[in-house]
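To: structure desk
From: M.T.
Subject: fold request, one chain
Message: Could you run this one when you get a chance? Sequence is below, nothing fancy, just the single chain.
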Amino acid sequence: MIVWLNGTHGAGKTTTSALVQRLIPDSRVFDAEKVGETLMDITPGLPATDNFQHWPPWRPLVVETARRVLDYTGGTLVIPMTVLFEQYWREISSGLAQHAIPIRHFVLHADQDTLRQRIAGDTVLGPDSLFRLRYLEPYAEAARTWLHAEAEVVDTTHFTPAQTAQQIADAVKSQENDPASAKPRR
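Reply: Done. Structure tokens follow.
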């Protein structure tokens, strides 16, 4: 199974993923951004882009990497990764479905003011405000048009990362006990 943690910068995906991993037995965190970093290291470089997700190889490589890791280890992969383009999410989710890998897709959501405060106060990644703030409006647009309808939304505005992780782990565990309780997917 894959537990995908989506949402924009500042929502708490990275912090929450490590906590979710501790709460779900036999799980591992797979940072799909590392696949993008590998593509960025190709020399000479791939065609210029402002987001490695635009490179066509990224999506199938994420699917293939997740599939191979799960074939090798079993269990659950927790993937903290922002995907705001519906087409890209469709490619990834259908690719995983072709391999019969179930996905629990969660969107970590917070209001814009909270996101801005978190980004500005991030001591781990640093504020890098220009890059990270640039994704707030595309996230809001994706949330309005498709993303929130496609996932289980967890509002992190007033939750600690530990509370958010517990909510997600509880949802995953309840599905394991009652598969019919999962939110239906399109």
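Reply (cont.): DSSP finds eight helices and five strands in the chain. Let me know if you need anything else for the meeting.
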